[in-house]
Amino acid sequence: PTSPLWAGTAVNDASGGTVAWGFPNLAAGSNAADYAVTGSISGGAISNYLVASNFGFAIPAGMTITGVEANVEWKASSVDPTDNKIYLVKGGTIQTGTKNPPTLPSA
């Protein structure tokens, strides 16, 4: 295990969803006080993709990665918010498995 690595870059990707992230760059780094705000999402709307990248991995030659853990931190002021899907992207290609997080408790 290693210490957590934070995204160096975070951007809005409009190829999915219908609501843009207003400040996607705030999802980069380790400042827990900043959030990549979408504004209001209602009526079953889904946000655009929030793409986090440039984690600064330094994998020594001959080493094998046996697992990846991603943590998502968010907050909401509405009742019963949910995450839709989380994708892992390798070499620019979305991997076949997705993590469909459960509905989180009301804010």
Gist of the model:
The chain is mainly β and 107 residues long.
Written account of the structure:
With 107 residues, the chain is mostly beta strands. The chain is 0% helix and 21% strand. The chain has strands at residues 9-13, 49-53, 86-90, 93-99. Strands 1-2 form a two-stranded antiparallel ribbon. It has a two-stranded antiparallel sheet with strand order 3-4. A hairpin with a 2-residue loop joins β3 (86-90) and β4. The relative contact order is 0.20. Mean pLDDT is 76; it is low at 102-107.
SSE layout and pairing:
Blueprint lengths: L8 E5 L35 E5 L32 E5 L2 E7 L8
Antiparallel strand pairs: 1-2, 3-4
Query: In oligomeric terms, what are we looking at?
Result: single chain
Contiguous helical run count: 0
Provide the spatial order of strands within the biggest beta sheet.
1-2
Runs in which pLDDT lies below 50 for 5 or more consecutive residues are 102-107
SSE order: EEEE
Global Rg? 15 Å
Helix content: under 10%
Outline:
globular
Average pLDDT metric: 76
| Total beta strands | 4
Largest sheet: 2 strands, antiparallel
**Share in β-strands:** 15-25%
Structural class: mainly beta
End-to-end distance: 32 Å
Keywords:
mainly beta, two-stranded antiparallel sheet, 4 strands
